[in-house]
Amino acid sequence: MNKIGFNVLAWTAAVSDDLFPVIDRLKKIGYDGVEFYLGAPDAAAYKRMGDYTRDLGLETTTVMTMGKDDNPISESVTVREKALDKIKWGVDRAHDLNAKIICGPFHSAHTVFVNRPAVDQEYALAGEVLNAAAAYAAQANIVFALEALNRFECYLCNTMEQLLKLVKAADHPNVRAMFDTHHSNIEEKSYASALDTIGPVLAHVHISENDRGTPGEGQVLWDNAFSSLAKINYQGWLTIEAFSRNDPDFANAIGVWREFSDPWDIAEKGYKFIREMSQKHNL
């Protein structure tokens, strides 16, 4: 059975000792691992969290985003250099957490648009930065699982077809892809065709409801999603990513303006839901 994880962004974007009680409870629910956002500046906190989760017997994964000042597809060489430095910093923090995956849309700046579709040159620029960063990540056996976002958050990669193009542009075995049920619910024609496209390079999956609340209580076509994952013989993390307004600064940054579900409701019901769907579809 695939491992089940939970992204603590449902509570906070921070990495700190204050999360220890949350981690303890996620372990008791049955989760195999927890996912952290690589954004908190206190480097020492990542090492403490890595030690804590390891001692509990939990694995870790991570997620990362970029902004306009460190955009990998910027026309500015200086900005792209900052992007590379930031991703390398993220690799170091993931290593502190004992994580082997950095997922997310760190191929380009989140919610930064140029009023036109993406062009080949931008895929090439992203590929160049990601290739260099992946060479650094490979030293720690860390894999990049790049994410396609919906059209309201990103213009470089909205679909698995575009994401595959980007992975090929990066041209490094440590650069792979992830699949998010929330974004794909908006952008793809079907889960089956999308997963067939990205299957050969798929390294991570986010289980996320259409409203970012409790999986199984919204409109995502879950039977299609799980059966399609089983068809491509996906073997990796099934990690719940859901959001709340517990961390107002982060919530404001990603456009979360209301509560979707209580985080513990998401964690407890979501874990049960993933187990049931995985068993139903032999995933």
Characterise the protein shown here.
It is a single chain. With 283 residues, this protein is an alpha/beta fold. It has a single domain, classed as Alpha-Beta Barrel (TIM Barrel), CATH 3.20.20. It contains ten helices and eight strands. It has helices at 20-29, 43-56, 77-96, 120-138, 160-170, 181-187, 191-198, 222-231, 248-254, 263-280; strands at residues 4-7, 33-37, 59-63, 101-104, 143-146, 175-180, 202-207, 238-240. It has an eight-stranded parallel beta barrel, surrounded by seven helices. α3 runs parallel beside α4 (120-138), α5 (160-170) packs parallel to α7 and α7 runs parallel beside α8 (222-231). It is globular, with a radius of gyration of 17 Å. The relative contact order is 0.14. The model has no long low-confidence stretch (mean pLDDT 95). Residues 23-258 form the Xylose isomerase-like TIM barrel domain. Pfam families: AP_endonuc_2. This is D-psicose/D-tagatose/L-ribulose 3-epimerase.
